[in-house]
Each structure stands twice: as C-alpha cells, then as structure tokens.
Amino acid sequence: MAKGSDHSLSVSSHAKSKNDAVGAGGQSQRRTAGTVKRLQMYRCSKPRRNAQGKIIKQAPFQSFVESGTRARIEPGRSWFANTKTISQRVLQQYHETMKDRGDQKSSQVILKKTSLPLSMLEEKKISPLGQVPMIRQTNFSRTFGKSATRKRPKLAFQNVSDLLEHVNVVSQRELKAEPNLDMVDCPREYIFAAGQSKRIWNELYKVVDSSDVLIEVIDARDPLGTRSYQIEQYLKKDKPTKQLILLMTKIDLIPPWLTQKWLNLLNEEYPTLAFHGSVRNPFGKGALYSLLRQISKFRNQSNQISVGFIGYPNVGKSSAINALRGKKVCNVAPIAGETKVWQYIKLMKKIYLIDSPGVVHPSGQDSDVAKVLKGVVRVELVGDPTQYIESVLQTVKPEHIKKTYTIPSWSDAEDFLKKLATKSGKLLKGGEPDLVAVSKMVLNDFQRGKLPYFKLPPGCVPPGQGQDAENITTASGMFEVTEAKTDEENIATEADVPTITTNSNDRDNQTPT
C-alpha cells in the first residue's frame, strides 16, 4: 500500500443491535428496537441471488410454491363460524353497564367501539309521535328461545282445493273478457317505431320554430299517404303565421296527366308545386325560386327568411335542397333515416334552407305494411321481409313485374320468390332458395322506384287504353318551366343557375330518385 494514501474502510460507529454500545467520548448510544427492525428490513428486503441470477433465498415477503403442491388450510372453526358475534350474557352485561352509567361516572369512556349494532339495545324515550322502540315492542325471550313466537303468515287459501277453485273462477273471467283468444297481438319490431322518438320530434320543433316558411315534401306516388296531417293541424292551431307549401317530389315516377290531377286537387288546400330533385336536371326549380322570392318581398319587416323542409322519411327533402343549391350540401341516400339532425343551408342572400329528419306521428294510422311500402323503415332491418311481398304483388301491376324480373307467371308470393331466387342465383346450401334475400331485393326495388306504381286521386278515372298517347301527355305542357337566372350576388353558388327546360320525354328517361 502506498505511503500517504489511506484506503482503509471506515467502520460505522453505530451499533448493530440495541444492546451494542459504542464508546464515543465515553457516552453510550443505543438503538431502539424499532430502529433495529427497520434496518433489518432494509437489509433483507431483497432476495439473494447466485452468480447466474437465480434466487437462492427469497425475500421475507416472497414465497414460491412448486406446481402441484397441495395447499392445506388450518382446520380451525374460525374459518366456518360467524364473524362479529357476541353472546347474550355479554350483551346483557353491556346493557346494564350503559344503563347504570350516569353523571357520577362521567369519567368512564369507551375506548374501542364494536361494530355490532348495539344501539338497538339502548332504550330511548318515547317520542311525542307515539313511536315505541323495538326493544319495548318485542323482547329477547319472545324472539329467541323455547318461548319464541312468530306471526302466522297470511295465506289466501287454506288448502289446494280452494286454490284450484280460485284459478277456475279467474280463468272463466278472463275468457269472458277476451273472447277472441285465437288472434293475439305479438310485440312489434323496434324498427317500426322509426321517426317517432322524442329526439326526432325535438328536431322537428326546432325547425318549425326557426322557419318562417315550411315546405312539406310529399311523394308523388302516394301524396295523401305521405302527408303529415297532424303537423298541418298543429301549424293551423298554434302557428297560424307560418306559411305552408306542399312540394310534390318524384314526379318522374308517375305519368304527367296524374301529376296534373294531383296539383289541381292539392292546390285547393295549400300552394302545391311539382318538383324533381336532381342536381343536374332538376324540374320545378324556377317555380320554387319565384315563390320564395314573392314570400320574401311580402315580409319586408325582416331582413331574411328561413325555409324549413319537413315530411315523412325518405320522401326527398335533402334531395330537394341539393337541387335548389345546384350541388351536394346534404347527405342523401335511398334509405330512411339518413338525416339525423337539422341543418342550416344558405340559398340566397336573404333566403336560408333548413333540412330536418323525417318524422312519423305515433297515432297508429299507418300499418306495418304501409310503413314498409312507403319507405319509412329500412328493409335490411325488417325481421321477416317475406310477409310484405304479397302486398307488393297486389300494388304493382303484373305486367310491370314480368317486365322487370322476366318471370312469366306465378301462383302466389312464395312461388314468385322461389322463381326469382332461382333466376337471380340467390340460393342457400343444398340449392334451397334464399327467400329473405330475394324479399329484401324486391322491397328495395319497390321503394326506389324500379317497380312503378301510383295511387289515383279520389274520383279520378285513368285514361282509356285506346286513347291517343298525345292526348294523354297534353298535361305535361304546363310543367315546361324555364329556370330563371339569378344574380350572382344573391345565389350562394359560384355560377349562375342554368336554364333548363323539362318536357315529358326527358322525364320518362330520368332515373328514379
């Protein structure tokens, strides 16, 4: 070891146990028992490992048991007996002690309170309301022990014969109240409550309150079936200052002479316009522009007007707004429920449009079949779509079905579905026809206009088969509306509205919405 360098280890002067004494200046320094245990915990808190890192001695808090070792539990009664129990003698002694304790023994206090409900044993004074403590109502001897008594249960019947007689009387009463037990209403599917939720109606009321003019969109194939009469009555009674306009969409799916008939009938109640919601080739756009401008001029006291679109689901509200704007501003889909919340769209400088989700009044006037055919519900969510095919075959003319699916004949709805499944290749394992998939395909074609159908106005007679085609389509002349160009500063588009002339021939070639 080099001279002048001190590499010797410095030994701590502290004691290693509480009995060790260190003579530092002749004074004794002893560690307490707690300090010694704490130091031992620090030293033994880690396991001992060998050079390979394997644990050769576990830490005090560690224990490793070999796999398959059988664990044993001490056979003590404390594992199976009740906890927090006390004998009756100890309870009585505690009760007497607490009762005898008075002012002269006020220095006596309870150091450790038990978790048992001993407060139930304390006698309390009777309250002014006449409530008697439980200990006075029923003592221990009457509740436990040989002299214990219990209340007799109240039984409606004393024997089995009385019970059987009562069941027969109740059954006869139910049979008299419900004579037609052969037909029982099964619970409806949740999808048929579409458009009736509180959230949807709250969205409708927001649109009604925020709009100066309301446009009720109806389907030209069934105008009366897609009208919301409850909303019309509500506007007449509670909102008489709001103007209501009927907009008949999807006129490309019905003949022109039928469109004229419906316009003549509906114009007697409200201003009615025919409309085709197409972004590239709209129809009725100029007439609706002119009507909205006239209403805007009548309301000179306001700087702008808001126009709300309301109606049944899947009637074309969002498509009409896209056609007015000339581009896609609202999400559209050929299924119901695409619009979830209301949407504010700018049309002109002083005219704004409000789109709303479709609503259905929960009055029960529409059956489940009518809701499916009107497109109120989504076909993919219907539980048994095969039961609605018979209504489709009765609504659509057979020649249209034969032309669409090239099926020459069928006996009933099931036979039609089997032939269509075989023709379209929708088969299950073993060559069985997939009737559910084919039924959904037919219902989708019906809702989207691939299967043509329409309803006639009351008292209307369709033209004869031998009548000239030119006479049938003479009513289409009134729909030749030239879209007027508007100022670039008023229209919320970059380009002017194009001038489009729509006639009956072009309308026949348009694709259904």
Strand portion: 5-15%
Return the CATH architecture of the domain at 192-355: 3-Layer(aba) Sandwich
If you average the pLDDT, what whole number results? Answer: 75
User: Helix tally?
Assistant: 17
CATH topology of the domain at 192-355: Rossmann fold
Rough shape? elongated
Going across the biggest sheet, name each strand in turn. Answer: 5-4-3-6-8-7
In the CATH hierarchy, what is the class of the domain at 192-355? Alpha Beta
What's the main sheet like? Answer: 6 strands, mixed
Order of helices and strands: HEEHHHHHEHEHEHEHEEHHHHHHH
CATH homologous superfamily descriptor of the domain at 192-355: P-loop containing nucleotide triphosphate hydrolases
End-to-end Cα distance: 102 Å
How many strands in all? 8
| Helix fraction by DSSP (H/I, runs of at least 4) | 25-40%
Ranges with pLDDT <50 over ≥5 residues?
1-11, 466-513
Secondary-structure content class: alpha/beta
Main location: nucleus
Subcellular location: Nucleus, Nucleolus
InterPro entries: G_CP_dom, GNL2_CP_dom, GTP-bd, GTP-bd_ortho_bundle_sf, NOG2_N_dom, P-loop_NTPase, TRAFAC_YlqF/YawG_RiboMat
Pfam families: MMR_HSR1 (PF01926), NGP1NT (PF08153)
